[in-house]
Structure formats: structure tokens, C-alpha cells
Design brief:
The chain has 149 residues and is α+β, with helices and mostly antiparallel strands. Strand 1 and strand 2 form a beta hairpin. 48% of the residues lie in helices and 19% in strands. The strands form two sheets. A three-stranded mixed β-sheet has the order 1-2-3, sandwiched between helices. It folds into two domains: 77 residues, GMP Synthetase, Chain A, domain 3, CATH 3.30.300.20; 65 residues, R3H-like domain (Ribosomal Protein S8, Chain: A, domain 1). The chain starts with a helix and ends with a strand. Pfam families: R3H. It comes from Rubritalea spongiae. This is Protein jag.
Length: 149
């Protein structure tokens, strides 16, 4: 069994144990493999602000890496929720960066998990006049400081 087959099986099995009958579509993107969940009760799987999707993704990747240590990270999405949220996050980050360039004062994002922090750092890497930094530490959610360069 290949790691991509295993990742889909892990997700379908977990959701099956939780009482969901789902269909999963594999979507290849720039970020790698995304398992897109197709289900009627999408809100129950997405959770509040995508927290259940984050947890499902975390668990799928932990189990997958136990059996396939070299497997790349797999993204889990439902009804394109994460894709839409990522787009909104990039727009918000760029607006904050413009504010920093105009005002010359640092701003901080809302607390973000590691995945979303990486998206913000990458989206602002090419913006002139600013730099980004995350605090060190073990906290799951951290704010990114966007400051003048």
C-alpha cells in the first residue's frame, strides 16, 4: 500500500468510527496531496473555525508518519473550507503589511497555528519594506509580528 492510499484509508476509517459516511477525493495541489471530504454534514466535520479539520489533519499525518516516515504532509479539507480560509488569510496579511508600510508601526496577527503561520510568512516574504517574525516557544497558537524592515 502506498502512503497516499493509506492516508485516504486512515481518514475514511476515522470518520467511519465517528459515524460519518463520507466520500474522499484526492486533489493534487502546489502544497501536495489534499484529501477533500465530500459529506452532507460538513459543518459537523469542519467544526468551529475549522478546528475539527485541523485535528483530523493532525491525526491523519501522525498515523501516516508512523507507518510511512518519509511520507509528505497531507492536507485535509471539507467543502473547500480550508482553501477559502487560506485565501482570506493571505488577503488579510497583505492588508496588514500595507498598513505597516504606510504607518511605519508594527502590527500583530490573530493567534495562528503553525500551518497558517507558514502561509502568512510565505505570502509576505516578497513584500518590500516589511519583515515577519513569530515568537519562539511551544504554544500551539502564536501571533506573527509584521514590522517595518
Amino acid at each position: 500500500m502506498q502512503w497516499d492510499d493509506a492516508s485516504e484509508k486512515i481518514l475514511v476509517t476515522m470518520l467511519g468510527h465517528l459515524g460519518f459516511s463520507v466520500e474522499v477525493e484526492r486533489v493534487q495541489s502546489d502544497d501536495g496531496l489534499c484529501l477533500q471530504i465530500k459529506v452532507d454534514e460538513s459543518k459537523a466535520i469542519i467544526g468551529r473555525n475549522g478546528d475539527r479539520l485541523e485535528d483530523l489533519q493532525y491525526l491523519v499525518n501522525r498515523i501516516l508518519n508512523k507507518h510511512f516516515p518519509d511520507a509528505p504532509r497531507v492536507k485535509v479539507d471539507c467543502d473547500n473550507y480550508r482553501h477559502e480560509q487560506e485565501g482570506k488569510l493571505v488577503e488579510k496579511a497583505k492588508a496588514l503589511a500595507e498598513k505597516v508600510v504606510e504607518s511605519g508601526k508594527s502590527v500583530r496577527t490573530r493567534p495562528l497555528n503553525a500551518y497558517y503561520r507558514r502561509i502568512v510568512h510565505n505570502s509576505l516574504a516578497e513584500v518590500d519594506g516589511i519583515s515577519t517574525a513569530s515568537p519562539s516557544g511551544n504554544a500551539r497558537y502564536k501571533r506573527i509580528e509584521i514590522k517595518p524592515a
